[in-house]
Write the structure tokens for this entry.
Amino acid sequence: MVAMDLSEMEVVYQHPHALVDMYTHFCPGCTHGVAHRLVAEVLDEMALSERTIGVASVGCSVFSYNYLNIDFVQAPHGRAPAMATGVKRVLPDHIVMTYQGDGDMISIGAGEIVAAAGRGENITVIFINNANYGMTGGQMAPTTLPGMKTSSSPNGRDVEQAGYPILACELLSTQQGASYIARRSLHDPKNIRMAKKAIRLAFETQVRGLGFSMVELLSTCPTNWHMTPVKAVKWLEEKMIPYYPLGDYKVHPTISELKV
């Protein structure tokens, strides 16, 4: 064996301080962990973790308080934006974020998220869209694609009976109080890097006091999709992205020059 001298090697990656060093409990192939890492990296790079307060929602997203090394409060189902509003108004010098899934944010919490964006609450929302209710058995969610089979739509989503999926970015970008709205995906390294840039712009929006910001992240749920992790990533790319186009849906002029 040859001993390696690591003292002169360049460090290209370090575990983020804002990410708790522990084993994940999420299913294999779930991209919640990727989203957690990106948020933690941004908080570290912007030196925000010591004054950031997270609001955890109900669903698989609730476990964000296990993985992000910041202060957290727990909100009732769908009420994270309302609770974040209260926290931010009481502690305006703090950074306040919600971490929510599709069943929580755009179903039972649709009223809260639209109202928070309309009021221009200076909070940041990280929205995980995996097209189903992940924690409770993979039921149809407001984001389930037309024809997509779930445990509560075994023959596929029938839009005549259940309606069409709700497009969160398109909806929230119409609110005057929204300053940064973007949709990204976590299916490959290139798009993960782009997702991180969007998350940073969202927090920068809050730091500058510009109002409401939200980043939607298209994510995989291999267990409830009944796919391997590799097939789930491919399905996201081929099926979800055409229905949920990636991009910036609203960018405040003050932060537009920061885009890369």
